[in-house]
Please model this.
Amino acid sequence: MKFFQNIYRWDNDTKISISIVLIGFIMTLFISFVDLFTLYPQFNFSWIYLFYIVLWFLSFVCYYKCVTTSTEVPENIKMDISTYPACSKCGLGKPERAHHCSKCNSCILEMDHHCNYIGNCVGFANKKYFLLLLFYVTLMILFILLVNTPLAIYAFFYPLRNPFYHCVFRLFDLIHCILSVYGFTLIAPTAHVVVKGLFCNYTTIEFIVKGDMGWVSSSESRKKNKYDLGTLRNIQQIFGIGLLQALLPIPSNTTCNGINFETNGEYNEALENQYNEYYEDY
Ligand SMILES: [Zn+2]
Ligand SMILES: [Zn+2]
Model:
């Protein structure tokens, strides 16, 4: 199975992190089904959990794609060291914005960062799935906070007739809330940088080297970052054009191939050498 074919290169930290995520996925699905069928009959809105299950399904497909999509530099580029400079670690061709990842033991196309929770790098090939994963998981967390928390408070004052089920269901709700808050603490620090990077077209590595460039593209950010083409075009470079294909975990018809990049005319070339000194492989 594709999901497990990379398992040989996962270290113990990665195996633990991936297990935590999978247990979280299984538990949230189980609890949402329990809620779907056992919510207080007087409310008559248990159908709302169908919406949650759709979010769950989209998140899981995004997660699967994040784990299984190869983010490495394609073989033909790796072999072409006459066109692309050779990587100091693996000696193979490395296009601009690619970096060597010591955990993946390969150069990664438009490398963003290595993520233990997916056992893979976030790079050009899976960045859309990673961003969608963050988006759908955030919606799931908001759902739990807005729907389950008021229900848990209600249940405190108006318990079910059967005390055993009451305790079990409220325990599930409590676990759901804890998982949501834990999920939020996991994704918030990463999401903050990756979402800014989406709007201003930079990777987490470039963020570390060049510093914060704000939330949206501006003439200031374009001076610092030659890849910044304006907020909308930066988004289209990852999500393609069209809302439906942008929201689904399917490949986008983006014009960028992750190897050659369009640049803006406002970039201040003098900054390039200064940045080059700081670039290192990860
Ligand atoms: Zn390399
Ligand atoms: Zn990696």
